[in-house]
């Protein structure tokens, strides 16, 4: 039998999960991480803004504009695009935009770390697309990897590589965002776990290799 206390706990849990999902959304990580790496690479305010915003705008702002406009027009369910079939256009928009950003970095003589960051993001995106659409649909919504968890995990490992072992504590945020996606019913535990592993490998390894 469900008690009022159980209902209150469930409501509180879902509120915390919703807050974590919004505050630790992929676009937030992809906007903030390039600024952190830009500072590490240049140690100058101007360099941080220049290269950080190139990656942040092409990797986060432009794709989010596409996603939000699509959500308002009913092309997918929300700005989180939880329905698998709606993810194709946002993925393509992100690839095109981020690819343009990588070209700007290379042509502009950006620091190696910024190019490595963008390439790691691009690699993670390609693998996410492959996993999302290569696996057969299972049920009405299909099997879809957690992009929230992937981006958070990739960001955590890149920050740790750049700034040192203390930044491994950012991994707590990865656990929180993965939990939030499961708590809200947007992903299963296996999907959130797969996203975290994807971020660790495809986000961290290319960045480490290229820097």
UniProtKB/TrEMBL annotation:
Transmembrane helix among keywords: yes
Species annotation: Saccharothrix ecbatanensis
Transmembrane segment boundaries: 19-37, 49-68, 88-108, 114-135, 147-180, 192-210
Protein name: Fatty acid desaturase
Key words, A-Z: Membrane, Transmembrane, Transmembrane helix
Top-level lineage group: Bacteria
């Amino acid at each position: 039998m469900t008690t009022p206390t159980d209902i209150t706990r469930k409501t509180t849990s879902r509120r915390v999960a919703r807050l974590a999902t919004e505050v630790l959304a992929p676009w937030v990580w992809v906007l903030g991480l390039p600024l952190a790496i830009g500072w590490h690479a240049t140690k100058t305010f101007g360099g941080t803004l220049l290269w950080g915003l190139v990656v942040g705008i092409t990797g986060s702002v432009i794709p989010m504009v596409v996603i939000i406009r699509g959500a308002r027009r009913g092309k997918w369910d929300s700005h989180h695009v939880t329905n698998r079939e709606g993810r194709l256009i946002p993925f393509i928009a992100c690839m095109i935009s981020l690819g343009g950003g990588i070209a700007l970095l290379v042509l502009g003589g950006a620091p190696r770390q910024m190019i490595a960051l963008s390439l790691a993001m691009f690699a993670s995106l390609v693998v996410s697309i492959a996993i999302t659409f290569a696996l057969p649909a299972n049920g009405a919504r299909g099997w879809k990897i957690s992009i929230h968890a992937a981006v958070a995990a990739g960001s955590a490992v890149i920050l740790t590589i750049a700034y040192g072992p203390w930044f491994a504590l950012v991994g707590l945020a990865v656990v929180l965002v993965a939990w939030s996606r499961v708590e809200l019913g947007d992903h299963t535990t296996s999907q959130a776990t797969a996203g975290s592993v994807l971020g660790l490998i495809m986000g961290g390894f290319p960045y480490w290799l290229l820097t």
